[in-house]
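Incident log, support desk, overnight shift.

02:14 A customer reports that sequence design results differ from what the structure should imply. Their input is reproduced verbatim below. On-call engineer (initials T.W.) acknowledged and began investigating.
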């Protein structure tokens, strides 16, 4: 028979056995760019998968790399999708940031009018719009140029502040091609078709070009960075629960891209059809950083050949991957 003492004892045991739940003045905010990996975050929230980790979790988008770095440095962003090299850089600078996982194995493409671009070497003499100078797309692009024995001076690189600006340059005829991450690639193709009657294509899959240039199988381009502050709040088990929820969310995104796109549209401020189209080209995953370490190290070493300061002067040590 369940008497009062037995009930209280059982309840106390259950409470103690539960993973730590975030207790804070405000709900946990998951931050991400208006790019494909954030679809996984919005899916996880919409499905209710995070309610046992941090009730009331919300998503917010950061718009520029500078905004993201400032948010992490100030402590306002404790769980945020970042270019993976940024996590390594901030970790090596002692800012208490570690990489929980990789959320895409590459989502970068060179988009151009159909038949005008065939490979990196064919960009010689062309004008290419590239968003975010001295950030991940630019760094990857420069390495691909070098592998094709091209110098930046062999073409004209027009840097833009945001992907929409690069799309406008391409669709408006002021660039021959644009380097775009999903869903910007999908947006450019659909916009050109609807607004200008142009046929654009993903002329270069930068993931395949990266493998050919470096020998590494994937481009672990972005992942979820977690601050030590958040780790202390939700504990190791909370981190494990978060990772498991994101892994389930990836499966749901692939299984029903239409529903995932609808859940993400308002947060990313993009039309649902664009988001849905992009999912097939985004290589979305939720792979623990420990499992992706070989490709992460390859990426960091390759980027650091140009300037070790990109990753904070050295490869991150074991603790960076330990979440």
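02:41 Re-run completed on a clean worker. Output:
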């Amino acid at each position: 028979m369940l008497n009062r003492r037995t009930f209280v004892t059982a309840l106390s045991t259950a409470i103690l056995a539960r993973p730590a739940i975030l207790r804070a003045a405000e709900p946990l905010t998951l931050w991400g760019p208006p790019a494909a990996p954030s679809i996984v975050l919005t899916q996880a929230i919409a499905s209710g998968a995070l309610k046992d980790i941090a009730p009331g979790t919300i998503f917010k988008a950061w718009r520029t790399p500078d905004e993201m770095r400032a948010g992490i440095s100030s402590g306002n962003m404790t769980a945020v999708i970042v270019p993976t090299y940024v996590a390594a850089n901030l970790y090596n600078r002692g800012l208490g940031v570690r990489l929980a996982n990789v959320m895409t194995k590459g989502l970068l493409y060179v988009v151009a009018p159909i038949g005008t671009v065939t490979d990196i070497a064919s960009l010689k003499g062309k004008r290419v719009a590239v968003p975010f100078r001295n950030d991940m797309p630019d760094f990857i692009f420069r390495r691909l140029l070098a592998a094709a024995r091209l110098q930046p001076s062999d073409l004209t690189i027009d840097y833009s502040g945001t992907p929409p600006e690069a799309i406008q340059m391409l669709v408006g005829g002021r660039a021959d091609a644009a380097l775009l991450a999903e869903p910007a690639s999908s947006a450019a193709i659909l916009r050109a078709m609807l607004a200008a009657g142009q046929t654009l294509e993903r002329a270069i899959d930068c993931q395949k070009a990266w493998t050919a240039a470096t020998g590494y199988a994937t481009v672990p381009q972005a992942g979820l960075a977690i601050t030590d502050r958040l780790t202390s709040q939700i504990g190791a088990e909370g981190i494990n629960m978060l990772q498991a929820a994101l892994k389930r969310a990836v499966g749901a995104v692939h299984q029903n891209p239409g529903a995932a796109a609808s859940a993400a549209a308002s947060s990313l401020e993009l039309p649902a059809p664009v988001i849905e189209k992009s999912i097939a080209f985004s290589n979305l995953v939720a792979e623990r950083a420990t499992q992706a370490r070989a490709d992460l190290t390859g990426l960091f070493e390759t980027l650091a050949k140009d300037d070790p300061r990109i990753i904070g002067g050295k490869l991150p040590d074991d603790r960076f991957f330990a979440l």
